[in-house]
Design brief:
Elements lengths: L20 H14 L2 H10 L8 H15 L4 H9 L2 H15 L1 H16 L4 E2 L1 H14 L1 H5 L2 H17 L3 E2 L4 E3 L6 H9 L4 H5 L10
Antiparallel strand pairs: 1-3, 2-3
Helix pairs in contact: 1-2, 1-3, 1-4, 2-3, 4-5, 5-6, 6-9
């Protein structure tokens, strides 16, 4: 298990940032080419590689992506760049599960449990109630402003939608993922097979 990737706290620094799939893919490719963040950041900014309205926004995105990709193994970065878009999105989703405690809890305590009950429809009201219950239970989350908290849980909810695991708006429809064998084997080899269930991999539920 890649414990050095796992963030066990509710991290406010990721609250203001969406999935950023295209931008993360650009950075992962540059990181493979250059091996250091300073060069990645300079290349992105000098060539306006992000579709943002300002350099300040691009720098904000770079900080968020660096937080996500720091210490991510090279073979996972390669996987994100060498396979189809669906696999790359799932690889990024795995990374975000590591970095976002609230996302892990949402997928495990709400989405996964619903799937185990053979129910594939999650009312949006139930999803929002889950997030509000989490805030009520956490002294840390209670300290955040209402606007920061709203942006945090909304971006957290969008992550499985961007990864293709939730579709629609109300209800949210749970959609099993077609895990590329290399990604599945990579996770199992690192004893991270539990994340396959959080990614709604049908094979992971075969013995339930």
């Amino acid at each position: 298990m890649l414990d050095h990737l796992l963030c066990r706290d509710y991290e406010v620094s990721i609250a203001n940032h969406p999935f950023l799939f295209d931008e993360t893919l650009i950075c992962s490719r540059l990181l493979l080419e250059h091996g250091e963040w300073e060069t990645v950041a300079r290349t992105v900014l000098e060539n306006s590689m992000f579709r943002t309205r300002s350099a300040a926004t691009a720098q904000t995105y770079l900080r968020a992506i660096r937080f996500r990709l720091e210490q991510v193994p090279t073979d996972l970065l390669r996987l994100m760049n060498n396979y189809d878009e669906s696999t790359a999105r799932l690889a990024l989703f795995y990374i975000m599960l590591q970095k976002n405690r609230l996302l892990r809890e949402f997928m495990e305590e709400t989405v996964r449990d619903l799937w185990l009950e053979d129910n594939n429809a999650l009312p949006r009201e139930s999803a929002e109630a889950f997030f509000e219950d989490k805030r009520a239970q956490s002294a840390v989350l209670k300290e955040w402003s209402d606007s920061t908290w709203r942006k945090f849980w909304q971006n957290t909810l969008k992550a499985p939608q961007e990864a293709g695991l939730l579709q629609g708006q109300d209800p949210l429809i749970l959609t099993p993922s077609d895990i590329e064998p290399f990604l599945r084997d990579w996770l199992l080899a690192r004893r991270d097979g539990v994340y396959l269930e959080l990614m709604l991999d049908p094979e992971a539920f075969a013995f339930h």
